[in-house]
Amino acid sequence: MGLKRGNSGSTATAAILALFIFVLTVATVYIFVKKIWWFPPAINDIGHEIDRQFMRTLYITGLVFVAAQFGLAWAMFRYRSRGQRATYSHGNNTMEILWTLATAVMFVGLGIYSQKVWAEVRIRPAPADAMRIEVIGLQFKWSFRLPGPDGKFGKYKFEAHPEQEFTRDPWVVEPDDPDGKDDIVLGPGSVIAVVVDRPVELLIRSKDVTHSFFVRELRLKQDAVPGMTVPLHFTATVPGEYQVVCAELCGQGHHLMGTFLKVLSQEDYDKWLKDMTAE
Amino acid sequence: MTTEAGAVHVHEAPHGFIRKYIFSLDHKVIGKQYIFLALFSAFVGMFLSLLMRLRLAWPGMHIPFFPDGILPEQYLALMTMHGTIMVFMVLTTAPQSGFGNFFLPIQIGAADMAFPVLNMLSFWTTFLSLTVLLAAFFVTGGAPLGGWTVYTPLSAIGATAGPGQGTGMTLWVVAIAIFSGASLMGAINFIATTLDLRTRGLSLMRLPLTAWSWFITAVISLLAFGVLLAAGILLLLDRTAGTSFFIPGNLVLTEKVIPHKGGSPILWQHLFWFFGHPEVYIAILPGMGVTSHVISTFSRKPIFGYRAMVFALAGIAFLGFVVWGHHMFVSGMSPYVAIAFSILTMSIGVPSAIKTFNWIGTLWNADIKFTTPMLFALGFVSLFVTGGLSGLFLAQPSIDLYLTDTYFVVAHFHLIMGVAAIFGIFTATYFWFPKMFGRMLHDGMGKVHFWFSFIGVYAIFMPMHFLGLAGHPRRYVGTEGAAYLGGLEPIHVFVSVAAVVTITAQLIFLFNFFWSMWKGKKADINPWHATTLEWSVPAPVPHDNFGGHEPRIYRGPYEFSVPGMTEDYLPQYVPAEKEVKG
Amino acid sequence: MPGTVVTDDLELLNAGGGPPADRGGAGGGDWHRGPGPASERERRTYLTGISVALAAILMFFMALASSYIVRRGTGTDWQPFDVPRILWLNTAVLVASSITVEIARRKLAQAGVTEFRNWWAITTALGTLFVGGQFVAWRVLADQGLFLATNPSSSFFYLLTASHGVHLLMGIVALLYVALRAGQSTWRRRAIAAECTAIYWHFLDGLWIFLLFLLSFGK
Ligand code: HEA
Ligand code: HEA
Ligand code: CUA
Ligand SMILES: [Cu+2]
């Protein structure tokens, strides 16, 4: 082994490696273009916007991916050792500056552009008339709370008495709080429903460890962090039943911590709510 | 003559097995010790990933030692230990402390590292850390299952939080704290060595890019590991002393109210990722260095844009400290802060792009020799591009909302870290083995290993992107939790088959490594016709590297195919008078 | 000083020490660069080592200090308390020890080995006194019913003082080591060791003042 002049194996190796990189690139592009495995259709406006931003990113990175992999494959094949002598050059400052600027404009531009969608999702507050739903993660189920007709959540015991030390579960709505009288608690393992085309604001929290509320069709995910209440809003436009999963490691039952989000018409919703409160 | 610790450049060769091979002060022995530690850890980590893949594809399969199959908590423990071992014990040790220890002093013309005793201590501290970490497998309650990021409060509460959260988690935290100490000692040594022990004529801008990358990596380690140590101590106190740094009040676990108050789980994430993001660059930078080195050598062409390469390394290191929040877009952190982190993260693509362009630029008009190290270096470039580009999706919070904590992230970090950085280790091994052991690795076996690995890792990790796009969360032991996951099982099977083949193929490497150590072809002093100082000394390298004389450097590190010369390489250490004119 | 090393290299860098320019002769990192022989280089290496180590220690304490600030801002359970008054006395002791260690180092540079040993011993004594004083401060807090886990403010108090204390104890070990070997005039690195220990000691002094301000005014 070692380095000899005019390495004989070079051509075959160069050709196979270049070919593999070529095939790999083409196959990857093919799978992405055919969308063989893809996200399910979005059911909210923000979801569609996120998809558009995803596609913009995909076009740009796809271009870079193809250019870089083909460039690599081509260079290694074209300049394989055939007894030639390499050109003695330490580089080219003009090109260096050019591609630095090009990538800077492209990557940072894309980055700045994408903040628009982010602002829609997380910075713009929910509309005032949004339905509010409290989402609570606990090992290994989701539970929910609706504020009832008054639209206000009552305090939990530990919130009403911050100085008190509890030995029994303090996540019980404080009986003395008038806001809490009509709260509807949907206990661990419940399914949750919302009304189609109506803005919804989720208030996400956790009773034990960190979980993460994830609905694919909404394109939304939010960690449920103990000690915090994080708001998240959306307006679902397509009726149906969608899977909720937990996306933050919370223990041995993490993969089973699922439930469903139902998007219902107003009538169906009222019926559902009646059933829930009847129990 | 003295054998004391410290910045001495000549010391006597030690006698006796223990001082020579166990508690050795010689940077070359310590470097090899680190490499063996990493090799062992890599196989442990790989074995754990094999078990994980078996469980994911064939849940009912009978596996020895797991009479009831791999339980969910066991799967998560395997995963946690896999990630931890791979990131800390393989990627933080081999590329930096392993190869860096062996070759940095030689490349800069020094007799040893600046502080040999500190060097030895840092190895044995690392060893202790590995021992403590592995002990977590054998304690009651089982190995920790917090993921390698051990998010609080799951990891802070203790045994009530579930299996693996008792002694196992405590050992994890202790191991990581010890590891931080070891890495800090190493970083101090690398920095002082590079700054102060360079030989005559070796200005910073004549350093080989490997040396640059070790130096910059050391700076990152120095600033990052102290923070991890602090975080580890806080976590340990929460677990054992009843403090509430990370545990908020009124948490209810298994019907019990946890006696803590007011802590902040997000604080842990900030501390961890302040370390964690720089850590991933600690893993990749040495790989970038060795890739540049090897690509230039086997292109027989000076590296394209040496200065740009150095500035890009420094740029990545700097930006690496201001982007940690991109791991926390859905953590409940302020959405305004997320914007800043996102744009900074996107800009880290720029120095990375500079590196990629310069690698391809080096290949342009070159005379490429397809040796085994060169194959791995080319593989590194391909994998780095593929893995890096998916980072640009994750860097945008709006898109990351969907992709975070799915297999898309798993695909991203395995391609860029799990295998690009590992390809850096392979490149270094095939390239430097002759200097380390005086024998060549078997070339045929090396090439077979390359083909299996390169095709294999793409087959394992490319499909994971699609799992992620379909919304498959990570850290899921099975697909029974949601109907849509069931439809993705064929991908899991494909990935697992690819993993079994690829992992088996690593045995070729293992065999080659040990076989060649004894039976390989004897290596010439400079088998690759390379230009840097390590190729001026015989292999095995004498005890004080240069036999007491001070080498002298006459030019930059990558003078290949200089016009007017017969040979196509002009080493740094050959004086101008002796240049062979053609 | 390590600073010079970097400056030299930056100059070289600006002068265009890149690969194409084949400028033989002494570049950066010359074995014999700078005044004096190899021992000068050795001194530089140790100074680099200690400066770099201080940077790492600083990052460690900065992480704790930022956690302190964040944690104070998040929970509603933070209960400030007045730091024990003895801390101010301890601070005076530590500042004094910083002065004595500096005097000792200067004496050594002027070859006054006996005087050096005396001042060095005084420093060690003051350092030990400081650690003792910190213990008293802990006792004072414990008597008030403030323990490690009582409140985040007390947790941080114990944690920061203990971390600083551990580093200080390492400083005392270094002082003792130098003191024990100082008599050996054959010990080539005596002056270097004294200098590094002194730098470390000054650093701990400054760090303590920062921590004290954090604990007493940042509560
Ligand atoms: C070696 C390790 C390594 C490296 C180098 C990187 C590099 C990058 N990473 Fe990655 N990352 C990880 C390891 C690494 N990462 C790990 C381990 C995790 C998960 C941790 C966990 O949660 O367990 C992670 C997670 C992670 C996340 C969080 C995902 C989430 O959990 O939601 C994000 C988000 O921004 C991210 C982004 C990036 C970016 C933008 C880069 C950039 O540096 C990439 C830059 C490279 C390129 C962009 C490609 C090359 C460029 C070109 C080819 C340009 C050519 C250009 C033109 C033609 C114009 N990474
Ligand atoms: C270096 C990092 C590294 C490497 C190499 C690997 C290698 C592999 N990893 Fe892993 N992995 C992680 C880092 C790494 N991983 C991390 C950080 C996580 C996250 C954990 C968490 O969620 O907390 C993870 C998680 C993870 C998961 C996700 C689990 C989940 O979310 O449920 C899976 C699933 O398949 C997986 C699979 C594999 C497989 C099949 C391999 C393979 O084994 C591939 C084949 C391996 C090689 C080709 C490398 C061989 C290397 C050598 C032989 C080195 C030689 C060394 C010297 C010469 C010194 N890994
Ligand atoms: Cu709840 Cu994962
Ligand atoms: Cu990161």
Folded structure, characterized:
The complex is a heterotrimer of chains A (279), B (582) and C (219). Helices cover 38% and strands 21% of the residues of chain A. Chain A is α+β, with helices and mostly antiparallel strands and 279 residues long. In chain A, the strands form 2 sheets. Chain A has a 5-stranded mixed beta sheet, with no helix packed on it. Chain A starts with 9 loop residues before the first helix and ends with a helix. Chain B is mainly alpha-helical. Chain B is 62% helix and 1% strand. Chain B is built from 17 helices and 2 strands. Chain B has a two-stranded antiparallel sheet. In chain B, β1 and β2 form a beta hairpin. Chain B is globular, with a radius of gyration of 24 Å. The two termini of chain B are 44 Å apart. Chain C has 219 residues and is mainly α. Chain C contains 6 helices and no strands. Chain C starts with a helix and ends with a helix. Chains in contact: A-B, A-C, B-C. The interface between A and B is large, with 109 and 127 residues. The complex binds heme-A (2 copies), dinuclear copper ion and copper (II) ion.
Q: Keyphrases for this structure?
A:
heterotrimer; A: 279 residues; alpha+beta; five-stranded mixed beta sheet; 6 helices; C: 219 residues; mainly alpha; elongated; disordered N terminus; binds heme-A; binds dinuclear copper ion; binds copper (II) ion
The topology string of helices and strands of chain C comes to HHHHHH
Major sheet of chain C, described briefly? Answer: none
| Strand content bin of chain C | under 5%
User: What is the SS-derived class of chain B?
Assistant: mainly alpha
The end-to-end span of chain B amounts to 44 Å
Radius of gyration of chain B: 24 Å
Q: How many strands in all of chain B? A: 2
Low-confidence stretches of chain B: 1-10
Bound molecules: heme-A, dinuclear copper ion, copper (II) ion
- Residue share in helices of chain B? 55-70%
Mean pLDDT of chain C: 82
